[in-house]
């Protein structure tokens, strides 16, 4: 237990890194995912084809390989990004297809009458999707999106193995340095993760219930 | 083809515009690819040595023509599949155990089981593996297998429980009234139905499990990525890193895409057989329900089991 208290500053630093990875990559993935989702349902075949390939390709590649590419192959090819931003790029790329797919299923959950009403008022594709469909779809997919974010929280731990000093990285270093207190060190790391994931999970459950009653 | 209500069937003008947009997108993608190809094809200087461009045969020749190389890749793939297979079995067993404990009528059993389940669900798998590796000193293989088993077992358990809960109550009542014990009712009446109903989600989760074996790279289990990107890269030299990366990517895509395809087929078969309770994972087009964007995208699949899995 003493090990944990003594190293609390490095834990908090790691926790801060994990949080900033989560927030930056999460927001970026939301933006990219929305763009991909709109491309996927757009009338232009090449756009929807591109979005489909992007989704399938990234969803079927293990995160380790994506991060390996960002953290080791990119520098090898001459990029000079710091490892933190490499990890952000990798996590964004990996998470965005999941956001896109969640949104797409949300779009399908919007009653068809909404789209028909919008179209019969003379709105075009962009207006129908942007003003009528997406705002409703977003509301419905908030619980699944939170689940995607929970998964992202857990996935940031993989960045710890690729030179980012976030929670998992800190935990690993501390566990190696304090061989006699491994259990305490790692349980503390787990606690910090649970501090993010469990409240998010409860939030998702609450919202799900609320929306379920509404519809 | 287009059953979408979001836009009209394109007329001549819109078709022309769409074609122009397609050409522009295609050109942009091609330009991006060309840029990558040209960058890769440039000879590079590193550490005083000039390496030939990436598409020079010498950058591929040594690994690709070496039977030893493919042997090592094969062993790596085998290790990955082995860990995934054993992990799946453990995950299924733990999932069933979790359901039994969580739906127990005794609060003494139910509440701790719920807590443990939430704990495993909220933890990164990687941390779980590291914990098992360092605390249990089991060796990397068992760390990967048990870590994956526990984590995915918790998730499969939740899916199965949702399946059990969604069954009509009469099923359980009928079992009990026939004189089966509660455990027997659970195992012989409710589980088979819940399992079948949740099969697409479970298979999709097993695909995730297979993908997650790659975390073995970090805890030191010689699975595919570790074999190629670490062992073989140091054996043949770093100049083959990119070659090795592409080989690894191709193998993973081939394995995962075929498994995902299987999961989808299962989902579609289920939805066409039983319209009712399986609606959770149906393909909107197959049930005939009106959906906004039916028939778009190659697969034309609206809801697919992978959406339901985390990760």
Automatic annotation (TrEMBL), chain A:
Keyword Cell membrane: yes
Name used for this protein in its record: Amino acid ABC transporter permease
InterPro entries hit by this protein: AA_ABC_transptr_permease_3TM, ArtM/GltK/GlnP/TcyL/YhdX-like, MetI-like, MetI-like_sf
Major location category of this protein: membrane
Location of the ABC transmembrane type-1 domain: 15-204
Keywords in alphabetical order: Amino-acid transport, Cell membrane, Membrane, Transmembrane, Transmembrane helix, Transport
Location(s) in or outside the cell: Cell membrane
Superkingdom of the source species: Bacteria
Pfam families, A to Z: BPD_transp_1
Membrane-crossing segments per the record: 21-41, 61-78, 145-169, 181-205
Lipid bilayer topology: Multi-pass membrane protein
Organism encoding this protein: Herbiconiux daphne
Stated family: Belongs to the binding-protein-dependent transport system permease family. HisMQ subfamily.
Any coiled-coil regions, as ranges: none
UniProtKB/TrEMBL annotation, chain B:
UniProt cross-references to InterPro entries, sorted A to Z: AA_ABC_transptr_permease_3TM, ArtM/GltK/GlnP/TcyL/YhdX-like, MetI-like, MetI-like_sf
Principal cellular location given in the protein's record: membrane
Originating organism: Herbiconiux daphne
Compartment(s) of residence: Cell membrane
CDD domains: TM_PBP2
SUPFAM superfamilies: MetI-like
Domain ABC transmembrane type-1: 77-257
Positions of transmembrane segments: 20-41, 81-101, 113-134, 140-160, 198-220, 240-263
Domain of life from the UniProt record: Bacteria
Gene3D superfamilies, A to Z: MetI-like
Name of protein: Amino acid ABC transporter permease
Family, similarity comment: Belongs to the binding-protein-dependent transport system permease family.
UniProt KW keywords: Cell membrane, Membrane, Transmembrane, Transmembrane helix, Transport
Membrane topology: Multi-pass membrane protein
Pfam families: BPD_transp_1
């Amino acid at each position: 237990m003493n090990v944990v208290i003594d190293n609390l500053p490095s834990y908090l630093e790691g926790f801060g890194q994990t949080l900033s990875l989560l927030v930056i990559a999460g927001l970026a993935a939301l933006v990219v995912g929305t763009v991909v989702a709109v491309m996927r349902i757009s009338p232009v075949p090449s756009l929807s084809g591109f979005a489909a390939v992007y989704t399938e390709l990234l969803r079927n590649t293990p995160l380790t390989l994506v991060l390996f590419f960002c953290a080791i192959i990119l520098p090898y090819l001459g990029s000079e990004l710091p490892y933190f931003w490499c990890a952000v790029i990798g996590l964004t790329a990996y998470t965005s297809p999941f956001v896109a797919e969640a949104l797409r299923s949300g779009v399908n959950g919007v009653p068809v009458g909404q789209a028909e009403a919008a179209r019969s008022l003379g709105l075009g594709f962009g207006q129908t999707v942007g003003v009528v469909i997406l705002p409703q779809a977003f509301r419905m997919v908030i619980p699944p999106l939170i689940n995607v974010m929970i998964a992202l929280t857990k996935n940031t731990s993989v960045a710890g193995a690729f030179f980012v000093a976030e929670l998992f990285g800190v935990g690993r270093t501390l566990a190696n340095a304090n061989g006699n207190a491994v259990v305490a060190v790692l349980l503390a790391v787990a606690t910090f993760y649970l501090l993010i994931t469990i409240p998010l999970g409860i939030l998702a459950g609450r919202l799900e219930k609320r929306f379920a009653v509404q519809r | 083809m287009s059953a979408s209500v979001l836009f009209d069937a394109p007329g001549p003008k819109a078709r022309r515009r769409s074609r122009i947009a397609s050409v522009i997108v295609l050109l942009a993608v091609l330009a991006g690819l060309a840029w990558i190809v040209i960058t890769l094809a440039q000879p590079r200087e590193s550490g005083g040595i000039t390496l030939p461009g990436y598409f020079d045969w010498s950058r591929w020749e040594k690994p690709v023509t070496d039977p030893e190389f493919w042997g090592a890749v094969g062993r790596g793939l085998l290790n990955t599949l082995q860990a995934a297979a054993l992990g799946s079995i453990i995950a299924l067993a733990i999932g069933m155990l979790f359901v039994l404990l969580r739906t127990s009528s005794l609060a003494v059993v139910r509440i701790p089981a719920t807590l443990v389940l939430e704990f495993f669900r909220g933890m990164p798998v990687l941390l779980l593996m590291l914990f098992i590796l360092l605390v249990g000193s089991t060796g990397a293989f068992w760390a990967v297998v048990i870590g994956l088993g526990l984590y995915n077992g918790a998730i499969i358990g939740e899916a199965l429980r949702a399946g059990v809960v969604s069954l009509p109550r009469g099923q359980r009542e009928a079992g009990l009234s026939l004189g089966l014990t509660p455990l027997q009712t659970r195992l012989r009446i409710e589980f088979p139905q819940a399992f079948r109903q949740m099969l697409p989600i479970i298979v999709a989760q097993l695909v995730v499990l297979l993908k997650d074996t790659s975390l073995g790279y970090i805890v030191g289990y010689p699975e595919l990525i570790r074999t190629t990107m670490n062992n073989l890269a140091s054996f043949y030299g770093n100049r083959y890193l990119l070659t090795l990366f592409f080989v690894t990517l191709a193998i993973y895509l081939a394995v995962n895409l075929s498994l995902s395809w299987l999961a989808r087929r299962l989902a579609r078969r289920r939805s066409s057989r039983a319209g009712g309770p399986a609606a959770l994972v149906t393909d909107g087009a197959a049930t005939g329900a009106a959906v906004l964007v039916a028939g778009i995208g190659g697969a034309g699949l609206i809801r697919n089991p992978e959406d339901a899995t985390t990760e």
